[in-house]
């Protein structure tokens, strides 16, 4: 692919030392793992679609480090990347996903009935609830590597699948390239529209090639179920609504996802999944469930408490600003979501969010009354 | 040489029909988009150069950058010397369109003999603030910036440092690698207007030229700060001669002397510059073929620049204007960057002559307008 030396036939004429990247100023998962020896071992390998080690790591070379977040620094170009480059990716996965071992098995559970509670998070504090994940379609290479023909085929399949949905899932597809101004304005107001990536983490991995060709947004008429096509993953599936009924959000998420998967399977293009890595996605950080379940919640007092970070860590939650990753919180409103992706199921991760947010809202209420919260500090989950 | 296991792998996309793979260029306005029909795409899509550069590599920047509001961009790049041969069906028409009708059978003349320039030592320094000549050079045997590997790029840097370090006299200087510059060195280079940054233009980023930044990139300049070489930016080498005032002759003299010396030093080490008699010097962007030369001045033309015939005059003189920040910037305080518009089909001496003669005329026109006189009698013919 066009990011230069994918198939630079001459580079193997140069010695390992000459080709090994300078990672001396780098702080990302790839840089921590990729020794010169490992580079030497993997540099002449490629997947059957032609994805090479240099392709996997380019984004991590070009982006030495994020000030606050330990970035992954490598991506997959296809399902096989995780196999052909396992000597690099297994340690990255282990480091990123809390010690997950190459022999570990991942559990998938999209049965929303297994969630306990979650329908009554206090809407005075919990402004909105959202669950997202990604899915990759078997038989196609991933966004860093796919050709225009592949991307368009993914789009076409996705449109067929999504437009056949009915009832609460009945909706419409808006291709980015032929959106009207009115449609665009509406999608922006609904906070549905995604833009051409500007983050160098994504652009250096080649994910923005040919923009906006083959990209689009589908959503149901109710505006509670949304699918992004061909952004950072083949599909990003999002269920959301105002208020604190995470249970309902998760129900719709599970039901919708399963309906979509059935239709893809009928076309002999199921989702990429295996029992070790769960759902296969572009970024190793999203393996497993690929799930981020979160709320926008008002925690002006708790967020300034000395133990806020510690509480989040113990609850296995993370905070972001309300603009998403890399943004700051505004007015004491935080985006709180599960930190884990791999090694626990969808139900388990959403349960952590539901239970954790409930607890934090109660802590906030206590602090409002000027009371202490020491007795409520949870044990490490 | 060891090669990657074969074509089959990265031609996965050939399982899709040409129609399925052909880019959507309906919103596009660049040279590549004007030329690349679906038929041509089908014909070229399974080709590659010996180093593995493909049609999709050539055109990606033009697909990702539909058009510039004011400038007709090229929309394609070369990944190696052979690109211009393997993809000639695309690149010849692009070259022809960009370089004033230059035909596939035309020959390009190289003339780096500064003695052949007439005059040029006396552009009025009350108007001409600075003079500058730049070009690019590619080193044969290495892939170009969109495609080169880290090993190749470092090889180019190493060779360049060896060659430049052996320059003497007026050209004696020092190399500053981007990756280990001190804060002080960096500040000095910024103050001298020498430092180049990681590209931010999507035109360059989309073609892969910023990969592995700042590895093997650097700046060399002579002690006098009048001769400067950029290593591994948009081309292997960018060579710049510059000084304050209007003595373009001296600037060009140093340019030619320095370039010729550098070329000799590379040859001594078994490496030539990429050149052929049809395309002249081979560079990354088709717009820079031929001489790769941009000779220009920063000149004060507050009256003339507002004259209704300013655009027409420049055109007839085969000159172009830019703001003083370079391409894509605006003029500040009536000071313009005026340079040759052509690159291919004219020699270096001819292009610099056009700048010298043209700027002399523009300054005379400015003086006329200052005194409230007309300039109609000074209007030039189309060169």
UniProtKB/TrEMBL annotation, chain A:
<comment type="similarity">
    <text>Belongs to the ATP:guanido phosphotransferase family.</text>
</comment>
<dbReference type="InterPro" id="IPR036802">
    <property type="entry name" value="ATP-guanido_PTrfase_N_sf"/>
</dbReference>
<keyword id="KW-0547">Nucleotide-binding</keyword>
<keyword id="KW-0808">Transferase</keyword>
<feature type="binding site">
    <location>
        <begin position="292"/>
        <end position="296"/>
    </location>
    <ligand>
        <name>ATP</name>
    </ligand>
</feature>
<dbReference type="GO" id="GO:0004111">
    <property type="term" value="F:creatine kinase activity"/>
</dbReference>
<dbReference type="GO" id="GO:0046314">
    <property type="term" value="P:phosphocreatine biosynthetic process"/>
</dbReference>
<dbReference type="InterPro" id="IPR000749">
    <property type="entry name" value="ATP-guanido_PTrfase"/>
</dbReference>
<dbReference type="Pfam" id="PF00217">
    <property type="entry name" value="ATP-gua_Ptrans"/>
</dbReference>
<feature type="binding site">
    <location>
        <position position="191"/>
    </location>
    <ligand>
        <name>ATP</name>
    </ligand>
</feature>
<dbReference type="InterPro" id="IPR022413">
    <property type="entry name" value="ATP-guanido_PTrfase_N"/>
</dbReference>
<dbReference type="InterPro" id="IPR014746">
    <property type="entry name" value="Gln_synth/guanido_kin_cat_dom"/>
</dbReference>
<feature type="binding site">
    <location>
        <begin position="320"/>
        <end position="325"/>
    </location>
    <ligand>
        <name>ATP</name>
    </ligand>
</feature>
<feature type="binding site">
    <location>
        <position position="236"/>
    </location>
    <ligand>
        <name>ATP</name>
    </ligand>
</feature>
<keyword id="KW-0418">Kinase</keyword>
<protein>
    <recommendedName>
        <fullName>creatine kinase</fullName>
        <ecNumber>2.7.3.2</ecNumber>
    </recommendedName>
</protein>
<dbReference type="Pfam" id="PF02807">
    <property type="entry name" value="ATP-gua_PtransN"/>
</dbReference>
<feature type="binding site">
    <location>
        <begin position="128"/>
        <end position="132"/>
    </location>
    <ligand>
        <name>ATP</name>
    </ligand>
</feature>
<keyword id="KW-0067">ATP-binding</keyword>
<dbReference type="GO" id="GO:0005615">
    <property type="term" value="C:extracellular space"/>
</dbReference>
<feature type="domain" description="Phosphagen kinase N-terminal">
    <location>
        <begin position="11"/>
        <end position="98"/>
    </location>
</feature>
<dbReference type="GO" id="GO:0005524">
    <property type="term" value="F:ATP binding"/>
</dbReference>
Automatic annotation (TrEMBL), chain B:
<dbReference type="GO" id="GO:0005524">
    <property type="term" value="F:ATP binding"/>
</dbReference>
<feature type="domain" description="Phosphagen kinase N-terminal">
    <location>
        <begin position="13"/>
        <end position="100"/>
    </location>
</feature>
<dbReference type="GO" id="GO:0004111">
    <property type="term" value="F:creatine kinase activity"/>
</dbReference>
<feature type="binding site">
    <location>
        <position position="193"/>
    </location>
    <ligand>
        <name>ATP</name>
    </ligand>
</feature>
<keyword id="KW-0808">Transferase</keyword>
<dbReference type="InterPro" id="IPR014746">
    <property type="entry name" value="Gln_synth/guanido_kin_cat_dom"/>
</dbReference>
<dbReference type="GO" id="GO:0005615">
    <property type="term" value="C:extracellular space"/>
</dbReference>
<dbReference type="Pfam" id="PF00217">
    <property type="entry name" value="ATP-gua_Ptrans"/>
</dbReference>
<dbReference type="GO" id="GO:0046314">
    <property type="term" value="P:phosphocreatine biosynthetic process"/>
</dbReference>
<keyword id="KW-0067">ATP-binding</keyword>
<keyword id="KW-0547">Nucleotide-binding</keyword>
<protein>
    <recommendedName>
        <fullName>creatine kinase</fullName>
        <ecNumber>2.7.3.2</ecNumber>
    </recommendedName>
</protein>
<feature type="binding site">
    <location>
        <begin position="130"/>
        <end position="134"/>
    </location>
    <ligand>
        <name>ATP</name>
    </ligand>
</feature>
<dbReference type="InterPro" id="IPR022413">
    <property type="entry name" value="ATP-guanido_PTrfase_N"/>
</dbReference>
<dbReference type="InterPro" id="IPR022415">
    <property type="entry name" value="ATP-guanido_PTrfase_AS"/>
</dbReference>
<dbReference type="InterPro" id="IPR022414">
    <property type="entry name" value="ATP-guanido_PTrfase_cat"/>
</dbReference>
<dbReference type="Pfam" id="PF02807">
    <property type="entry name" value="ATP-gua_PtransN"/>
</dbReference>
<feature type="binding site">
    <location>
        <begin position="294"/>
        <end position="298"/>
    </location>
    <ligand>
        <name>ATP</name>
    </ligand>
</feature>
<dbReference type="InterPro" id="IPR000749">
    <property type="entry name" value="ATP-guanido_PTrfase"/>
</dbReference>
<feature type="binding site">
    <location>
        <begin position="322"/>
        <end position="327"/>
    </location>
    <ligand>
        <name>ATP</name>
    </ligand>
</feature>
<comment type="similarity">
    <text>Belongs to the ATP:guanido phosphotransferase family.</text>
</comment>
<keyword id="KW-0418">Kinase</keyword>
